[in-house]
Amino acid sequence: MDVPMCTRCGRRPANYYRVSSGEKLCFNCLFRSIEDTVIKTIRRYRLINEGDKIGIAISGGKDSLTLMYLLGKFRKQGKLPKNVELMAFSINEGHPYSCFYRMARSDYVQKLSEEYDIPYKVYTFKELFGVTATDVAHGLWSKGINVHMCTIDGVLRRRAMNIIGHKLGLTKIATGHNLDDEAQTVLLNVLSNDLDRFAWFGPKPEIDREGFIPRIKPLRFVREEEIAIYAHYHGIPLMELECPFVYSNPRYELKFTLARWERDNPNIKYSLVAFGDSLAKLMSDKAVRTPLRKCKYCGQPTSGDVCRVCELMRKAGLMEKYLAHFKTLKLMDTQSSS
Amino acid sequence: MDVPMCTRCGRRPANYYRVSSGEKLCFNCLFRSIEDTVIKTIRRYRLINEGDKIGIAISGGKDSLTLMYLLGKFRKQGKLPKNVELMAFSINEGHPYSCFYRMARSDYVQKLSEEYDIPYKVYTFKELFGVTATDVAHGLWSKGINVHMCTIDGVLRRRAMNIIGHKLGLTKIATGHNLDDEAQTVLLNVLSNDLDRFAWFGPKPEIDREGFIPRIKPLRFVREEEIAIYAHYHGIPLMELECPFVYSNPRYELKFTLARWERDNPNIKYSLVAFGDSLAKLMSDKAVRTPLRKCKYCGQPTSGDVCRVCELMRKAGLMEKYLAHFKTLKLMDTQSSS
């Protein structure tokens, strides 16, 4: 039987069929193509500039670990702008399935940290908010308020990243969102009729919004499948334990829908992200974005009267405990005086 | 066993469970609710004004027949503005599965036409374009150009409606699009990254665009399922023969995806249409719409250099035949002098 050769180099046997382009690639060309895509994304959208102090958010999943690996490698190879400081951090949400705990091999992060000189630190919800995600969930559920654990985690984690960013003096926070995550986000925003949320989408969102540390997503044009293969062959540990909360998360269903659609339309994920980006541009170009205000409880930036964190804490009956703790972080003053 | 009673009237046994609201309805209350929704849609968006001359596009399916029935009934009941002229027309695409031919009982349209005083006429692609949809398809396919029959039908039918509108002096054309159609359209435009096309969406699209007869969709807030039940119990014939082209039409797959999503989120179709409407408003408010131009071949309004009809005809090698015929319609002069 003839082994098909790599469409790119023509020299090595093909190991991977890339549906979106129809190419058959050897691992060598596949890995180079993935790295090229990430570097091009960083350059084209100017995600990283000279002197940036970038925090890499490590969930423990393959995507954030691959991101840490790639940024470390790129800096070592001189492919990033000059004087870029890289740091990494994890957030321990404080429930048995916290992303942090899912990460079976935190020793790998330590190894990357040393190899690429990227200081790494773990923060807990407990130290940032005075309460854990489980406390919030129990508070809400005991009052008959049904909020998905992933929503609680998400709201608190976004705020946590901002607090950590201010503590560390970060200029940007890099997250491991891949093409599949981004395509799902577009579809979710559409299905929940959330036009406003697109102002936060796009390759370089939240930039120039007072009080928010800009987020960058260097992996957003790489398919999840390709990151998994890249990770596997580069010794990056793949998650061993799936979070049980995932099954009732709306993204879970969309993952399979997108996989099915992809069979007929191999570019559908790129197409969705392109749609989201056009809409993001439109929403900010046209200044339809609601100007940011300060939360009347904690002073953190928000689009309404009360930020989502305070809304959750209030509903969970944890407001006093949270605010008392929050004051000790001395972030309220920082925010109010800015 | 206790028979559940209608949630609305409490007097009659329930026959229908409305997933979007959780109501159990008797047929009486269901039918009244459907009629109320259509009348409210007409009034809220001012779809019909005094003196309007409205052409009802009859495909032969349940939706357009229900639309003709309802508009006739509403006018008879004095629920429409004064002096509204209603006409109905069908378009025979000229292939064995033309919507017109699928309609097993054209005698029903004749009956409605007489009962509600709505003149009815059939036009063929052959008389409007000088060629049939089959001619175009054969022309394209023989050159190895794969265009779906539904696309050919759609492009020519939209133009046909405009030509018929000008011939009959219509002020508006009413189509039978229901909530499911509209939700699918939003999803399709998103998935094909077609932001511009949203300028054409919305409750009352194409109004104030020179050369285009405005389209109105009075059934766009009624779920397809409810129209089918309404039709069945009002003696409106349901289509007996499914068009074989439907299986490879992208809408067909979306129909099932939406049905599955609806189980978890009963309002998902309304939500999608609301998203489409917000985007439609944004696209026209912000004047992102490309100003209309005239096709360099036929003079009909288009957003580019060449309209989609001429593009198809040219590719199919039918341009000369088509243009020669088109001149005899004397529409080019009408358009150019306007």
From TrEMBL, chains A, B:
Highest taxon above the source species: Archaea
Residues annotated for Zn(2+) 2 binding in this entry: 295, 298, 307, 310
Positions of ATP binding: 57-59, 63, 91, 176, 181
Assigned GO CC terms: cytosolic tRNA wobble base thiouridylase complex
Residue span, tRNA(Ile)-lysidine/2-thiocytidine synthase N-terminal domain: 54-239
One MF annotation (Gene Ontology) recorded for this entry: ATP binding
One Pfam family it belongs to: ATP_bind_3
Key words, A-Z: ATP-binding, Metal-binding, Nucleotide-binding, Transferase, Zinc
Binding site for Zn(2+) 1: 6, 9, 26, 29
InterPro entries given in the database record: CTU1-like_ATP-bd, Ncs6/Tuc1/Ctu1, Rossmann-like_a/b/a_fold, TilS/TtcA_N, tRNA_thiolation_TtcA_Ctu1
GO biological process, one term: tRNA wobble position uridine thiolation
PANTHER family documented for this protein: ATPASES OF THE PP SUPERFAMILY-RELATED (PTHR11807), CYTOPLASMIC TRNA 2-THIOLATION PROTEIN 1 (PTHR11807:SF12)
Protein name per the record: PP-loop domain protein
Provenance organism: Vulcanisaeta moutnovskia (strain 768-28)
